[in-house]
Design brief:
The chain has four helices and nine strands. By secondary structure, the chain is an alpha+beta fold. The protein has a seven-stranded antiparallel beta sheet with strand order 1-8-9-2-7-5-4.
């Protein structure tokens, strides 16, 4: 026993003993929709749960998701994700899922009401998924209330980005 009356753990500086056995957990990927920020002005972001079947969860954990052409839609008080492609899970055999099925997004009623009001207020806006990730074991989708960019907006954004890169390069020298 040490001076304080507590047992001192042997090792480096009183560290707790390490767990024995096979390593840590593998980090789950964050699947991002890079195209979204190029094609849209994102005005607001909202996190929603996503209803998945077992083989879809396994595929998402492997990072086999494509968000390129996907969008969310509100109908009959429910939000659904359309056009999101989640590859089939190889080990699922005949119990596999349909890769392009529409998936229900999980939101509270007041959040859905707020989304409806926001979309009606901003003419020409839409709901697009910005990324899919896991939070405390649950699959989540980061939705963005977005408005489509025109071609000249895209060109201006590219020009601005390249100018910023040039300034950063000059500052480093």
């Amino acid at each position: 026993m040490g001076k304080s009356g507590m047992h001192q753990i042997s090792g480096r500086g009183g560290d707790l003993p390490k767990k024995q056995g096979g390593g840590g957990t593998k980090p789950t990927p964050r699947i991002q929709n890079r195209r979204a920020f190029h094609d849209y002005h994102v005005m607001d972001k909202l996190e929603a749960g996503i209803e998945l079947v077992g083989s879809e969860v396994k595929s998402v954990r492997q990072g086999k998701v494509q968000l390129g052409q996907s969008f969310a839609q509100i109908r009959d008080g429910q939000v659904t994700l359309h056009g999101c492609h989640i590859d089939e899970y190889v080990e699922a055999n005949k119990l596999n899922h349909d890769p392009t099925r529409n998936r229900r997004l999980l939101l509270h009623r007041r959040e859905i009401r707020r989304l409806i009001q926001r979309i009606q207020k901003e003419q020409g806006s839409t709901l697009i998924p910005l990324e899919i990730y896991f939070k405390r074991g649950y699959a989540k989708v980061l939705l963005g209330v977005a408005k489509g960019k025109k071609l000249f907006d895209k060109r201006a954004a590219i020009k601005e980005r390249e100018a910023k890169r040039g300034m950063d390069r000059a500052m480093r020298r």
